[in-house]
Design goal:
It is a single chain. By secondary structure, this protein is of the alpha/beta class. The protein has two domains: 129 residues, Rossmann fold (3-Layer(aba) Sandwich), CATH 3.40.50.2300; 222 residues, Rossmann fold (3-Layer(aba) Sandwich). It is built from 13 helices and 14 strands. The strands form three sheets. Strands 8-9-7-6-12-13-14 form a seven-stranded parallel beta sheet, sandwiched between helices. Strands 2-1-3-4-5 form a five-stranded parallel beta sheet, with helices on both faces. α10 packs parallel to α11 and α11 crosses α12. The radius of gyration is 21 Å and the shape is elongated.
């Protein structure tokens, strides 16, 4: 921001939310709140006078809903947008749609006790705004957000591949003896700010039949299930929110649940995931470092580690451990990142074998499988 304060505009139909966010964000010397409005129509009029660096946006509002407003902004004046969304199933599904349309991150809010919740979470809200300001607004291109676009793939082939995956999962017994050698390959992906769009670009381009994929995307609790369901409808791969004990299988993508860590575990010659509670690591739960370190230990040279767009350094040290264990490692390049934070830290540590643009990541994953 070249030393200038981050200019923020708040759009939310709740007077309480507007007041609390204005107070919290305005208390940080690096942030200037330009104003607030109860709906997008009022907001557009006010923002024309002084356009903000970041917009904090509610999704359910009168006169114009947040999704329509977001799409209009991204089409005419792309601006980093932080979604302030209710932690309900409807709120989660709408939020995932907003992230796919170009929003960079989400701040959750409950149906009840909003004021206290937002006050308690003030540090995370400020961090989300700063992360958005450090990045770029990148409307999703190259992968349709229309679920009908998935009809282009062979539904019969996808169905057969998924049936084979399910059959494999149900017939392989648990293994309690010594670990055995395995040639099973696995891909571990870590991402944060801008990652929902990046994952859609990558995973919709990966065909069934390759290595099993495990993912940590920094996302609040209750939102990852809707995110996984959306990707499952767009991808040839099966995409699901991980459950403790899930098998890592060819054609399957397991996404760590928000609010829980995920590790890779060996089950004889195969892999499963462990999903568990625990303290945040690098201020995150799930943490990319937690996943990557477990992959380094369990899979070694059979693994590919991929670090995509994101703020901070979560995943950099874990990717270095994967690299030291013989895994191939890949980073998204700066030009295609919304925020070149996590990949940059991994490169700085010497953890990345090579950097590639986002549209080339899927090809590297295909060759690994």
């Amino acid at each position: 921001m070249n030393g200038q304060a981050i200019a923020v505009f708040i759009v939310d139909d709740s007077a309480v939310v507007r007041q609390v966010l204005t107070t919290q964000l305005g208390a940080d010397p690096a942030i200037e709140v330009l104003g607030a409005a109860a709906d997008p129509i009022f907001a557009l009029d006010k923002m024309q006078r002084s356009w903000p660096d970041v917009i904090v946006l509610d999704l359910e509002m009168p006169r114009m809903d947040g999704i329509s407003f977001l799409r209009q902004i991204m089409a005419t004046h792309p601006t980093p947008v932080v979604i302030c969304s209710t932690m309900t199933q409807r709120g989660a599904e709408t939020t995932v749609e907003a992230l796919a349309a170009g929003a960079v991150s989400v701040v959750p809010k409950p149906m009840l006790g909003i004021k206290k919740y937002l006050e308690d979470e003030s540090a995370d809200i400020v961090a989300a705004v700063k992360a958005a300001a450090a990045g770029r607004a990148v409307p999703l291109r190259g992968s349709s957000t229309d679920p009908e676009s998935s009809s282009a793939r062979s539904r019969a082939a996808v169905g057969a591949a998924r049936a084979a995956t399910a059959a494999m999962a149900s017939t392989v017994p648990g293994h309690s003896g010594p670990l055995t050698l395995t040639t099973d390959r696995v891909v571990a992906i870590g991402t944060s700010t801008g990652g929902t769009q990046a994952l859609e670009v990558v995973l919709t381009a990966v065909p069934v039949g390759g290595a099993g994929i495990v993912v940590v995307q920094h996302m609040p609790e209750k939102f990852t299930a809707a995110f996984a369901a959306r990707l499952d409808g767009l991808c040839a791969l099966e995409v699901k929110e991980a459950v403790d004990g899930d098998r890592v299988l060819s054609g399957r993508v397991l996404i760590a649940p928000g609010g829980l860590h995920m590790e890779l575990r060996r089950d004889g010659a195969h892999y499963r995931v462990a999903v568990f509670d625990g303290p945040p690591v690098n201020r995150h739960r799930p943490s990319v470092d937690v996943l990557f370190r477990s992959v380094a230990h369990c899979a070694g040279r059979n693994a590919l580690g991929v670090i995509l767009t994101g703020m901070g350094d979560d995943g950099a040290r874990g990717l270095l451990e994967m690299h030291a264990a013989g895994a191939s490692t890949l980073g998204q390049d700066e030009a295609t990142c919304v925020v070149y934070g996590m990949p940059h830290e991994a490169v700085r540590l010497g953890a990345v074998d090579r950097e590639v643009p986002l549209h080339e990541v899927a090809g590297v994953i295909r060759s690994h499988g």
